[in-house]
Amino acid sequence: MTKKKISYTEAIEEIEQILQQIENEELDVDDLSTKVKRVSTLIKLCKEKLHKTEEEVENILKDIDE
Fold first, then answer.
1. What is the pLDDT of residues 15-55, one digit of tens each?
2. Of 38, 56, 59, 61, which is the most buried if we count CB atoms within 10 A?
3. Taking the complete model, does pTM exceed 0.90, yes or no?
C-alpha cells in the first residue's frame, strides 16, 4: 500500500480539524489517542518540510551570492 504524499497545507488543515474536534469535545475517548498520534505525525512531517525548504532557500541564496 502506497502512502499518498500530503502537502504542508493539507497537513496543517488536518491538524486544525483534529484540534477543533478535541476543543469541541467531539472525539470519543477511544479515538483520542489515535487522533493525537496523527497530529504528532503531521507535526513531524511539517517540521521536516520546513527544514527542507529552509535548506533549499539557503542554497539558492548562496548560489546568488557566488
1. 999 999 999 999 888 899 999 999 999 999 999 999 999 99
2. 38
3. no
44 within 8 A of 10, measured Cβ to Cβ: no
Q: Which helix (H) or strand (E) holds 23?
A: helix 8-23
Decide: residue 14, CB within 10 A, 0-12 exposed, 13-18 middle, 19+ buried: middle
Q: Is 42 helix (H, G, I), strand (E, B) or coil?
A: helix
Indicate the length of the chain as a whole number. 66
CA atoms within 13 A on the CB side of 65: 6
Residue type, 40: S
Instruction: Tell me the three state secondary structure of residue 4.
Output: coil
